[in-house]
Amino acid sequence: MLILGIESSCDETGIAIYDSNKGLLGHTLHSQIKLHSSYGGVVPELASRDHIKYIIPLIDQLLKNNSISINSIDSIAYTAGPGLSGALLVGSTLAEALAYSLNIPSIPVHHLEGHLLAPLLEVEKPSFPFLALLVSGGHTQLIDVKKIGEYNIIGDTLDDAAGEAFDKTAKLLGLSYPGGAALSELAEKGNFEFQLPRPLINSHGLDFSFSGLKTAVLTLVKKQSKLTDEIKANIAFAFQESITDVLIKKTIKGLEETGYKNIVVSGGVGANMKLREKLISRSKLEKFKVYFPKLEFCTDNGAMIALAGYLRAHLSSKNNYKFSVKPRWRLSEI
């Protein structure tokens, strides 16, 4: 069974082919970072136009590279939400039209389901059930993953998500877009000069809140008579220490509440090396296993959508080619 996966929820066009016997055969990705960098963030209309420009050539090239005919594809999985409406419509429209023309099933996939299942692309896979820490620009969630399609959100962000806090803090420090990656790189040059709050770290629940941390960074920046490169690095270091401490403390607490021994970490912030180092260190001490996708599968990509489509193909009851995108779509609503 060959599944074509299409991801177009935001500013990256991702295409992949997944084989039910051999696993991931190939994937390709077009990033729009250069397109949006001068604006300091994603411009939805420009994102949609860029998806239109690249999506068909990317599919053609991937099929050619793997010597696969489009007529050999058995089903098409695509991101139906959440995300930018226009961007989602590009991928959804093409996927449904192509599936109709080939008379094969179409499988709408929840973008976050793709992220939390991404570690299953690796050789060493987590077994169900497991606890997932999903950390990205728009979401910070702890999810009780019982099996494919059965997800219970036990911790959520009350305001800014972790990735959003990274980006906003990077902007306060005058870093280039995309800010999160630039801030993490800068933090490697910093030290413990500053101390920032760790919001809700000792609260009884599993929810997150990072807007106060962002405000604390703003206050700290304003206190500096001169924002030198060294001070910027030390602020970035303090911020990263604070946010990773909170993420890890809440995740460990989530393990205690669920009784699980497996943790999956996914989403863009899942690529943060400090977060990975701290979690791996804690896993050795407290005897749990932690699973990460490869760095290339932390950010948006077609491979995770193709895999999710394959894993939930038997759950799908879709029997026509009608569709609608869902810019706002909670994982628990699948």
Relevant terms:
334 residues, Nucleotidyltransferase, domain 5, 2 domains, 5-stranded mixed beta sheet, 10 helices
Question: What is the topological layout?
Answer:
Layout: E1 2-7, E2 12-19, E3 23-31, H1 33-37, H2 44-65, E4 75-81, H3 85-102, E5 106-110, H4 111-117, E6 130-135, E7 140-147, E8 150-155, H5 162-172, H6 179-187, H7 211-223, H8 229-258, E9 262-266, H9 273-286, E10 289-291, H10 302-311
Q: Tell me the total number of β-strands.
A: 10
Q: What is the overall silhouette?
A: globular
Secondary-structure element string: EEEHHEHEHEEEHHHHEHEH
Poorly predicted regions:
none
Give the oligomer, counting copies of the same chain as homo and different chains as hetero.
single chain
Question: What is the end-to-end distance?
Answer: 24 Å
Content-based structural category: alpha/beta
What is the CATH fold-level name of the largest domain?
Nucleotidyltransferase, domain 5
Report the CATH architecture of the largest domain: 2-Layer Sandwich
Task: Figure out the total of helices.
Answer: 10
